[in-house]
Automatic annotation (TrEMBL):
Residues 155-265 form the Recombinase domain. Residues 2-148 form the Resolvase/invertase-type recombinase catalytic domain. CDD domains: Ser_Recombinase. InterPro entries: DNA_bind_recomb_sf (IPR038109), DNA_bind_recombinase_dom (IPR011109), Resolv_N (IPR006119), Resolvase-like_N_sf (IPR036162), SSR_resolvase (IPR050639). This is Recombinase family protein. The keyword Ribosomal protein does not apply. It comes from Lentibacillus salinarum. Keywords: Coiled coil. Residues 356-432 form a coiled coil.
């Protein structure tokens, strides 16, 4: 018999009886007893549940070349803990090439139905054992995290302290996170430029160069303000404070807000492109007609870009939307600047854009909106109670319950935030604190909007004042909450399309 030995250990399960040395000694001794010929040996240090392993692939190449008669392993589960499809593929490859599976004392002929049946039973048992091992491991890891003890490979800025079960920052690498935060938030650099700056100081602890991915993971990770968070397939999200903080949670939140706001304002190469950034780049726009997100897209040439607020074409085609609003920003850019200037000039001019005074009917309308929101929140909470009853009765799977519960809670959160803002607005009106003078005090930061600001600085200023906006065909509503977190709308008129003369058969610019 020509034999190939296959040895495997799992990084998750280093049992003594399955050590590579022990496997080699026992199998070679068995070959000697049987007077077989050892052709080759193959080793994998991976899970038995994976078909694609270097050692196993090399073994199957030898099988298909007709080089052996037997695959010998210490136990069949060293060869396979595969799912049914992968196991059938492995068996078929061996069967077609007349190769048997052997363990010390057992020879399995895959052309024999009884042998195949026994082999299949062994693989099913191996699969079950593997699942049980994984479940126990994950159960133990979840419990560790609940107890405030970390697990897993940390970022390379940290080392694990076995006594405290916490991750301590390496003294020589504490500078990295504040360095990245400063360049990203204060210097407004992109990932590429930050990685270049890091490489000027030092390579990574592993001796490799910094790259954009490493920078991005450090900006996104909660570990650096102390949190280890794990999402499990049970639907649970468990988090604990296990890392020595290298930034504050406030800084982390600022970083995520900056990531959301920044969008595509930096080129792929990471160079700052602040000159031609549109002032609404950091304002989240939605459509007043269909409620979908509005994109700020660039057309024209790089030195003289044309900006349009419009729906994404691919999304519209994919989901069959018919709303095709597309407005060149030249139709309202000057009006935004004029509106800010007028608001900061006098109360009379401000009234053209902002509702400052409220009569009894308008106050009643506001109260009615508040009442409707309160009822909607109450109905959603009742839906949560009914959903829980259905789940507890066994008529709803946990995964579906978790998904629906999450969706309803998200709606409640949004509506509660809106309700809180409307209540603050009503309180301000009732207390007569909602006046032009108080509004001017908060809007004053925009008084230098027409000075020599870069495109990025202007976008940052407008984004701070107006984080949200609603686009209609004839008007743009910018929403500010700088005054006591009360939503205040500034209505900007949209002028007629100045490019109608371009609308020809061969060339069309949407207005």
């Amino acid at each position: 018999m020509r034999v190939a030995n296959y040895y495997r250990v799992s990084t998750q399960l280093q049992e003594k009886k399955f050590s590579l040395t022990a496997q080699k000694q026992e199998l070679k001794s068995y070959i000697s007893q049987k007077e077989w010929t050892l052709i080759d040996e193959f080793i994998d240090v991976e899970s038995g549940g994976k078909l694609k392993k270097d050692g196993l692939n090399a073994l199957l190449d030898l099988v298909e070349e007709g080089g052996i008669d037997v695959v010998l392993c210490i136990e069949q589960d060293r060869l396979s803990r595969l799912d049914t499809v992968a196991w059938e593929y492995l068996k078929d490859t061996l069967r077609e090439n007349k190769v048997k599976i052997a363990e010390p004392g057992v020879l399995i002929d895959l052309d024999n139905e009884d042998d195949v049946f026994i082999s299949d039973i062994k693989n099913l048992i191996a699969q079950r054992d593997k699942r049980n091992i994984v479940k126990k491991m994950m159960r133990g890891k979840r419990q560790r995290l609940r107890e405030g003890k970390g697990w897993g490979q940390p970022p390379f800025e940290y080392k694990y302290n076995r006594e405290t079960a916490q991750y301590e920052a390496k003294p020589d690498w504490k500078w990295v996170i504040p360095f990245i935060d400063d360049l990203y938030l204060n210097e407004q650099l992109g990932m590429k430029m930050i990685s270049d700056k890091l490489n000027e100081v030092s390579k990574t602890p592993t001796g490799k160069k910094w790259n954009e991915h490493l920078v991005q993971t450090r900006i996104k990770s909660k570990a650096f303000h102390g949190i280890q968070e794990k999402n499990h397939n049970t639907g649970d999200t468990i988090s604990a404070f296990v890392y020595e903080p290298l930034r504050t949670e406030e800084t982390y939140n600022r970083l995520q807000e900056e990531r959301t706001n920044r969008g595509k304002q930096f080129s792929v190469a990471g160079r700052k492109n602040t000159k031609n950034i549109h002032m609404l780049k950091r304002t989240y726009l939605t459509c007043g007609h269909c409620g979908r997100k509005i994109n700020l897209e660039t057309h024209g040439i790089k030195s003289r870009p044309l900006y349009y607020v419009k729906h994404g074409r691919k999304t519209s085609i994919k989901y069959g939307y018919t709303c095709d609003i597309s407005i060149n920003t030249v139709r309202f850019d000057a009006n935004i600047m004029k509106a800010l200037k007028d608001v900061l000039t006098s109360e009379e001019l401000a009234k053209k854009y902002i509702q400052i005074e409220y009569d009894e009917q308008e106050v009643n309308q506001l109260k009615s909106e508040i009442k409707e929101l309160e009822k909607s929140i109450s109905d959603l909470n009742a839906s949560l109670d009914r959903l829980l009853d259905i789940y507890l009765s066994g008529d709803l799977k946990k995964s579906k319950y978790t998904e629906k519960d999450k969706t309803i809670n998200a709606k409640i959160k949004v509506q509660e935030e809106t309700l809180a803002k409307l209540n603050r607005k009503l309180d301000a009106i009732d207390s007569s604190s909602f006046t032009y003078e108080s509004l001017y005090q908060y809007m004053e930061i925009a008084k230098n909007i027409e000075t020599e600001l870069t495109g990025l600085e202007r976008a940052q200023l407008i984004g701070t004042l107006f984080p949200k906006g609603i686009v209609y065909r004839d008007k743009l509503i910018l929403i500010t909450e700088v005054f006591k977190s009360i939503p205040i709308e500034i209505t900007i008129p949209v002028e007629d399309d100045p490019y109608t003369w371009h609308h020809t058969k061969n060339f069309k610019v949407h207005g």
